[in-house]
Amino acid sequence: MKTTAFAASCLALISVVTANPIFSGGKKINAWKGGKDWKSKDIKDALKPAFFTSTYQIITTPDQVINGTVPTPGEPGAIGYYDFGINSKLDVICYDIVLKGVTGDYQSPAKTATHIHQAVKGASGPPRLAFPNPLPVSDDPKVTRYSKGCLKGPFTTGILSNGTDTAAGFTVAQIEANPAAFFCDSHTKKYVPGVVRGQLA
């Protein structure tokens, strides 16, 4: 398990998430009226650092972007900080994503353009999780983009493979089992294969 400053900062999310909608498979739900077995106490427990079963801090860069197995660099000078806290018992992943030096709008056939994909370093693979895109969108590389919150399974990506969503049956426990088999990235209109990328381990 990796320990990061992200875990310590997640206590601040507790009041925010329990008072506002969170995303569940891309759909907003009210934390206090959540689905089966998803109640405010569960959320509070999931967001306490002690209740994360693992945490990850990834620095993403344009030189790591791959299209298939071909290096396809993203936006020069861009960098991304993707912090994740997982509670595999509740199938919850909390995220704190910061993008710097990224210009232009997002583009992806998935429902968002910010993902965790399943593939080892040097290879491409399907998205398993789709996160809200960091905002604001700008053509100014000095503008910093942010996205922060939590997702709870079951998950969807909006991408179909053989008629099935690429998140179907996926749980965050699979990340914990082999984090090196997953990477995170974001996609823009200028850099469709990826503006930045980084492996979880």
Label this structure with key terms:
four-stranded antiparallel beta sheet, disordered N terminus, 201 residues, mainly beta, 4 helices
Structure, explained:
The protein is mainly beta and 201 residues long. It has one domain (5-199). It has 4 helices and 14 strands. The strands form 5 sheets. A 4-stranded antiparallel sheet has the order 3-6-7-10, with no helix packed on it. Helix 2 (11-19) packs antiparallel against helix 3. The longest helix has 9 residues, at 11-19. The protein is globular and about 40 Å long.
Summarize the structure.
The chain is mainly β and 201 residues long.
Task: Record the SSE blueprint.
Layout: H1 5-9, H2 11-19, E1 21-24, E2 27-30, H3 40-47, E3 54-60, E4 66-67, E5 70-71, E6 79-87, E7 92-100, E8 114-118, E9 127-131, E10 145-152, E11 160-161, E12 164-165, H4 173-177, E13 182-186, E14 196-199
Antiparallel strand pairs: 1-2, 3-6, 4-5, 6-7, 7-10, 8-9, 8-13, 11-12, 13-14
Helix pairs in contact: 2-3
Which structural class do you get from the secondary structure elements?
mainly beta
Strand content: 25-35%
Lateral arrangement of strands in the main beta sheet:
3-6-7-10
Which spans have pLDDT < 50 for at least 5 consecutive residues?
1-39
Count of domain modules: 1
Rounded average pLDDT: 83
Helix content: 10-25%
**Termini separation:** 11 Å
Order of helices and strands: HHEEHEEEEEEEEEEHEE
The number of helices is 4
- Mind telling me the C-alpha Rg? 16 Å
Number of strands: 14
Q: Largest sheet, if any?
A: 4 strands, antiparallel
Shape: globular
